[in-house]
Fold:
Amino acid sequence: MKPPPFDYHAPRSLGEALDVLAEAGEEGKVLAGGQSLIPLLNMRLAAPAHLVDINRLPGLAAVEAAPDGVRIGALARHAQVERSEPAAVAQPLLRQALRLVAHPVIRNRGTVVGSLVHADPAAELPAVLALLGGSVRLARRGGTRDVPAGEFFTGPLESAAAPGELAVSALFPALPPRSGTAFREVARRHGDYALAGVAALVGLDEDLRVTTARVACVSAGPVPAVADVAGACGHRPPASADWAGAAEAVRARAEPEDDIHATAAYRRHLIGVLAERALRDAAREALNA
Amino acid sequence: MTTRLFGEPVQRREDPRLLTGRGRYLDDLGPDALAAAFVRSPHAHALIRDIDVSAALDVDGLVAIYTWEDLPDRLAEPLPLLIPHPALTHGRTAHPLARERVRHVGEPVVMVVARDRYLAEDACALIRVDYELLKPVVGVEEAAQSAQPVHDDVPGNVGAHLVQEVPSADGRGAREVIEGAPHTLAFRLDVERSASMPLEGRGVYARWDADDASLRVYSSTQTSTSVRMAVAAKLGLPLPKVEVIAPDVGGGFGVKIVHPWPEEVLVPWAAMLLGREVKWAEDRREHFVSSAHERAQVQFVRVGFDDEGRVLGLEVNILHDHGAYTPYGIIVPIITSTQLPGPYRLGSYRVEFSSIYTNTVQVTPYRGAGRPQAVFCMERTMDRIAAHLGLDRTAVRAANFIQPGEFPYDQGLIFQDGRPLIYDSGDYPESLRMLKELIGWDSFPGLKAEAAREGRRLGIGIGCYVEGTGVGPYEGGHVQVTSDGRVHVSTGLTSQGQGHETAFAQIAATELGVPLDRVSVVTGDTRRFGYAVGTFASRAAVMSGNAIALACRKVREKALRIAADALEADPRDLEITDGVVHVTGTPAAAVPLATVAVLANPLRYAFDAEAARATQFAGASSFDRPPVQEGQEPGLEGRDYYSPIRSTFASGMHAAIVETDPLTAEIRILRYAVVHDCGNLINPMIVEGQIHGGVAQGVGGALYERMVYDGHGQLLNASFMDFLMPYATEVPHVETAHLQTPSPLNPLGIKGAGEAGVIPVSAVIAAAVEDAEGIPIDRMPISPSDLFGLRGAS
Amino acid sequence: MPEQAHEITLVVNGTVRRAEVPGRRLLSDCLRHDLGLTGTHVGCEHGVCGCCTVLLDGEPVRSCLTFAVTVDGREITTVEGLADGDRMSPVQRAFAECHGLQCGFCTPGFLCTVTALLRENPAPTEEEVLEGVSGNLCRCTGYQNILKAVHRAAEIMAEES
Structure:
């Protein structure tokens, strides 16, 4: 289990990195934390001709909490974001989800943006970005574009990042007032990819009735799908909202698949159970907000 | 003796080196060795049409490429069938490199040697093997009915078929007894595949000394002595020219007892051929598809019993999936079928197994070795009887127990060592009493009802087992006291983390009356001890422990005789304390063991002042007899062997309380309790550690681990991502209590402990989940998804 | 054609070490084979078992999921660097005292992980200890004595500070 040979590039500036990526095209692969990529290389399931190591690029490790949200640079590690108080205040779902990402040692090295680009539908962070309606900033030689989450995840392990592009940061929108979030999942072992998981966001109006209720599911389809269930809950205080009905709506829409760890039927069932738990948790957070 | 170290929880002497990075595991050796890698079959069943290596020849650092066609003489023959048995009518083993046909994914086809492992893998990736696909045979029931043979000359894919029958006291067969019993039940039980999965894979490193025409092989093996014989035979070398050493080994759990693995003969062969050091360190993916698996069995049960739940007749029919080859014979199903009766007196018993070929990795013992399946079968049967009669599950067990006064108890079966299966000792009623107290069996219904009021589901389960340990034929020990007073102990069997250096030193220090830090222990090095069997079947402490004790007793006797001469005392009046021989009650009349060692070796040449005392003009010896007396040997050393008449039988009982989530079907173990009887404890800390580790592996087998093959014979979860070995977060705290019924069969009164922890866990967890859910659990492991499915079906 | 080699400098256990490695050389292999520090073990090479865990600038990381070239110029601590000369560290001593190891293969990864854990959190709760070691596999001990050893190490460190 040794990686195949590749040409190694360690650019010192963003411009240099984008030049190398442009030249490498389809043959180039970006290395940030490497916690998803290097296992694939070690198993020789990936064999890029060029590996562009961005770990020496300056200015990409920032975690900036601003009124509009938390902007996370491409070299910010999971653990760094998990520990960031400003990030947790601006968008608590980040920490809630990060605690479920693999194990602490993996989080020391893995990056948030890397997880997004890896676009694993079983991973937590794509669901978070999708739920919050965030975006990923892609740079290429001669330009930058912000791709909204809804367009960023294009399939299992497929994202909108094109050859020659580098994901330089992601924006996770801030938590609106009187809102709460929660992340619930069931994994076979602690730290494993979830059999099913649900991220929820609940927002209340000034009368403390539910106005926003959205969930995004993990391991429930090829890309993280967001379901708006505000209608199903009813415009009611959390105590009397129809969380079960909302969860049923989520469950009905989920498209999980069978694999060796769980049947599709079980996953769908879990999504319903976890959706209700996550929505109730998020509503409780919203009341406390 | 003041230095009573036997029985004390002394800290391990292995630890300082292992804790500071100074352990020497296989891949830590030979930094300059060439690296081997293998092209392995991607297909479960195929003919090899052609192998094209041309593209690989340009790889930088490539040294050699070998296929079956390159193998000489005996190396080209199939690997040995290690344990023949009359019932194994169609035993088949693999060639070191596949000859014309591959029979499982992962079978080695081409060996590559290169400057390092990266380059060797580069070359492997460029070798093209042209396969003609054959229909894969997967699944033991499918294989038993398949028209497609795994081996063309093995009809019906049946490698072995064996029946053992123990009639009732009045001479009736179990089938007849069951027919006439007041109550009968019939059901099926399934256990899935798992594997030993040590964190260090296998590995081999060979050095050929051309000047000396000798070969030194290091192998991450559980049996260096037998690897040595296999290598010498396969390579046509005189045995004295081959030495095999098991260095620090990163776990074995059974998979490393198989030998010679293809790599164990190929790597030394390449080293000889190339005149270079060659090393192969197995990677994790290789380990999944080329090292052995175990556990998979389908078991059909019929039982007849009376109103008290006493088993009048038990009939079990087992389909055993042994994979593509049978290098280790049929040991696993033999153990299942003979250990199945457990602590019970069965009215009559009939067991039959068929051992079936499939296009999957071969099956050989993994810790427990067929016993987890046996206990799952027997204990699920006990629970079914209790449920049928509405009796307490422990009451049914108690009604069937062999009583303490009934030992030795002959089960009427032939065990895995080819000898009668006769229990030597134990106290099952006391063990059950201790367990019920430890887990709180009698107060559990209240706990369960209280939890139910909160909407929680709790369940309790129990499992009992008897384990034949310390199987023969023999082990030996050599003990030498040198003139510096140090005690050098060696034994031929190997160590994989059991703390033998500590436990054997405790035995030697206790027997000889020397401080522990004077004793050093070497295991698994054929340069030090050439005769041995190996480490498996919970045998190391029983076999080598007793052999070392016997060797120490010889040394002690000799030391006392020499000291008696020196002190002009009667040997019967002497004892040894803290390394000094002295007259009992007269500490002043003493001679250090170091001096005795000097005197034991009459010398012509003095190499130091101490040695001068034994030289010919020192006046130490009498002129009336020769310096080395008749029947004696120079030196203060002794060698002895322990060869038991038969195995000694350890036992134990486990209980667990589990909670199942009514919604998510997640299963959590809230408490886990163990009562364990392995006779006298050499080091209770080490025994506890063995139990903890065994239980954790059992939890893996009960709730997490299985090898998932698809219909094409592809292993779908050949990684630690998907083969779910438990982390700390999945393993419960284990509460233990020890019962000690010494074995009457050996001088130290000990029984084996290595496998105990793992054996009953699947049975216990299944029982607890069943109790929580009210749904019969008849296959393991069980996942939340499985439980959800069962809930839906019931 | 021989692969391009990159000259790298690592500060390993306080000593400056240089090596010439291809871009694909895993840090685990660089430590073990290029620098001869075989105390760091390799158990899966896909980041799950944790045997290869070392400290990178004090933080535990998987050396099998890190290329040596990526960490050029950084500080690495391996199991060989945990003791203070001949005296084992509190974590090492606690593992010996509590029988927190059997075959010893996973042990270096646990020791590095736990050393960092206790540096950050000298008095962890049971939950924090469990979470802290939750990414390391051990096939021998069943973890019970490892958990005990972590708490014992915290005690020893408190006594000695």
Notes: The longest strand of chain B covers residues 311-323. Chain B touches chain C through 56 residues (CB under 8 Å).
